[in-house]
Amino acid sequence: MAASYVKRWLSVEDKVFLVTGGAAGVGAGIVRALLHENARHVAFLDIADREGSALESELITKYGALKAKFIKCDISDDGQLAAAYRQVLDKYRRLDGVINNAAVLTVDERNIKRMVDVNFTATVSSTMKALEIMGVHKGGGGGTIINISSLLALNLGSHLPVYAATKTAVLQFSIAMGAEEAYSESKVRVITVCLGPTDTAILNRSNLDNFDKDQPIASRVDVRQKVESAVSGILKVLEEGKSGSTWIVKNDQIAYDYTETLNKAFSVLSDT
Fold first, then answer.
1. Which residue has the higher pLDDT, 149 or 111?
2. Active-site residue identified among 85, 92, 163, 183
3. For residues 37 and 12, is the Cβ–Cβ distance under 8 A?
4. Most buried residue, 110, 136, 222, 247, by CB count within 10 Å?
5. 20 close to 102: Cβ distance less than 8 angstroms
6. Please, what is the Cα angle at 23 between 254 and 209, to 5 degrees?
């Protein structure tokens, strides 16, 4: 039997990337992996100044000057986000890929609006800014946008309702932005990755135990994949994912395309 052919949409080598939430956790893993795969430049945004600066120093020492750039940025502030995009374009003169990874998880009522602003609104804003730069219909050269959602977007449940809602919104938005008619105009792939629970600070027990004193969420998360597994899956999607597709990366397994199953589910839901 002949080996199945997998189309490679993108080689990371010699490309310029922007990663949100890139100072720690999965975001930092993505930044490191892109440079390991010989990306030309990687800019990463985060509010964590100390962690971001330390990672920039580490990467410049390892890969050389201008290979990595940390930009302190609160992506929920559209002015700061726009300035960060301008800085990347001014410095590197091009942009080939954006990975919208930044997320906030909280149930503090004072911070719920921030969760919506970071997880969803900023993802929308970053996607639109990336399309303005990379879209061939805007004079760009095409590219790729990966928006990070969650398995919670695919499961009905009663815990973390606002967080789940933001990630469901990211999924719906990304599917629409990656549709064939949009891709044919922009030549920018928009792809969704639904991550399973991953062993990062957002799932730190001391953080999650504050959410639900009666039945701590941390105790419900039985399987957490390693950061390296999440990063490996995201890079696989970056290389192989078709625009508008949805992929799942969970339980330290190889990333897999969930688009057909999701389309069937939406077909059932829309048949009313």
1. 149
2. 163
3. yes
4. 247
5. yes
6. 75
- For residue 54 the two structure tokens come to 């330390």
Torsion sign across C-alpha atoms 231, 247, 143, 24 = negative
pLDDT above 50: residue 72:
yes
Helix, strand, or coil (residue 97) = strand
What's the pLDDT score for residue 138? Answer: 96
Q: Is residue 101 exposed (0-12), middle (13-18) or buried (19+ Cβ within 10 Å)?
A: buried
Residue 63, both tokens: 């890969």
Q: Reduced to 3 states, what is the DSSP secondary structure of residue 256?
A: strand
What percent of the chain clears pLDDT 70, i.e. is strictly above it? Answer: 88
Nearest CA-CA partner of 191 in 128, 259, 141, 137: 259
Q: Identify whether 163 is a catalytic site residue.
A: yes
Answer whether residue 5 shows pLDDT above 70: no
Contact between 197 and 225 under an 8 Å Cβ cutoff? The reply is yes
Q: Report d(CA 97, CA 212) in Å as an integer.
A: 38
Block residue for tokens 């609006």: 113
Angle between helices 227-240 and 25-36 (to 10 degrees): 50
Torsion 158-161-163-168 (CA) sign: positive
